[in-house]
From TrEMBL:
Protein name, per record: Sugar kinase
A GO MF label: ATP binding
PANTHER family: HEXOKINASE FAMILY MEMBER, PSEUDOURIDINE KINASE-RELATED
Signal peptide (residue range): none
Domain Carbohydrate kinase PfkB positions: 12-308
Family as reported in the entry's similarity comment: Belongs to the carbohydrate kinase PfkB family.
InterPro entries xrefs: PfkB_Carbo_kinase, PfkB_dom, Ribo/fructo_kinase, Ribokinase-like
Length: 322
């Protein structure tokens, strides 16, 4: 496959993974759940679209009302859905979020979902063409973990992107309920060899590597193959590193009254990638994404509180006055 010149790219971001239906416990300890939407790369795609990027999403949905509502959501957000396939015998995955003293916890009902049935053969045609026409391809550890075939498909998509001159971002999103640690280490290692920008969290990489020092984790990430690393530190902000440019800096967190951190990391990733695609430096893109993530934790759900660009700019202006 021949590389497409950057100026000819049709999409700023193409994301691949599983979109899901969310049921979020808005009254902790009580059986009251707000139905919303989720899925890590889907959240990132919506966040990027709200930041002004041209976005496409690659997935498979079940032939059910939940699948229909997810596709309608993506269309409403201005995201290209022409590469989404509906599987007549598959189901759309769902998950539940509960809240307690230790934060939020997830319970999934996704085994055998339509997205977990994706194969490398499915990529050929519209999905591979959209990858070739994108500035960035975004994949996550969950994209790899939901099934062996999804793992093969995700890694193959990353390889296609590299061959086409499309930059690859990878969010670790380690979920040990989906696969054992040793398998995760092996497959995430393969993804890092194909990755331009690695977007892990401190918690994920502490489990994966046994390291606890953020700088040591970033060093490990570079040694594994990532040229650029943005280590998400939750309320403490992020650690940015660009090996080629000799950049290493800590971006402080923003103090807000957090209600629900569901999807905050995805919000950060989507906004960061949108701003990079739109021409920002890594530092400026991360500052923008940091503000967006601070906004999204102030409400319930993974998608409903993802901010529009105007809200991020307004928040940034208020911070500048302080």
């Amino acid at each position: 496959m021949n590389a497409t010149p950057t100026h000819a790219k049709q999409f700023d971001l193409v994301a691949l993974g599983e979109a899901m239906i969310e049921f979020n416990q808005i009254d902790p300890g009580q059986p009251n759940y707000l139905q919303g939407f989720g899925g890590d790369t889907s959240n990132a795609a919506i966040a990027a679209a709200r930041a002004g990027a041209r976005v496409s999403y690659l997935t498979r949905l079940g032939d059910d009302p939940f699948g229909d509502s997810l596709k309608n959501l993506l269309i409403h957000e201005g995201i290209d859905t022409s590469a989404i396939e509906t599987e007549t015998k598959g189901l759309t995955g769902i998950y539940f979020v509960t809240h307690g003293p230790k934060g939020h916890a997830f319970t999934y009902r996704r085994a055998g979902s339509a997205a977990s049935n994706m194969t490398c053969a499915w990529l050929f045609g519209t999905p591979s063409e959209q990858i070739r026409k994108a500035k960035w391809l975004h994949v996550s550890g969950i994209s790899l973990a939901i099934s062996d075939s999804a793992c093969d498909t995700s890694l193959h998509a990353m390889q296609l992107a590299r061959e086409a001159g499309t930059l690859v971002s990878f969010d670790s999103n380690l979920r040990l309920r989906l696969w054992p640690l040793e398998k995760a280490k092996d497959q995430i290692g393969k993804a890092l060899e194909l990755c331009d920008l690695f977007l892990p969290s401190l918690d994920d990489l502490s489990l994966l590597t046994g390291l606890s020092d953020p700088d040591a984790i970033v060093d490990w990430s570079h040694q594994a193959g990532a040229k650029q690393v943005v280590l998400k530190l939750g309320k403490d902000g992020a650690l940015l590193s660009d090996q080629t440019a000799g950049l290493r800096m800590h971006l402080p967190g923003i103090a807000v009254q957090a209600i629900d951190a569901t999807g905050a990391g995805d919000c950060f990733c989507g906004n960061l990638l949108a701003r990079l695609a739109l021409g920002d430096t890594l530092i400026d893109a991360a500052r923008y994404a940091n503000i967006a993530a601070a906004i999204t934790v102030q409400g319930w759900g993974a998608v409903s509180c993802l901010p529009q660009a105007q809200a991020v700019r307004k928040f940034a202006a208020a911070l500048a006055k302080d």
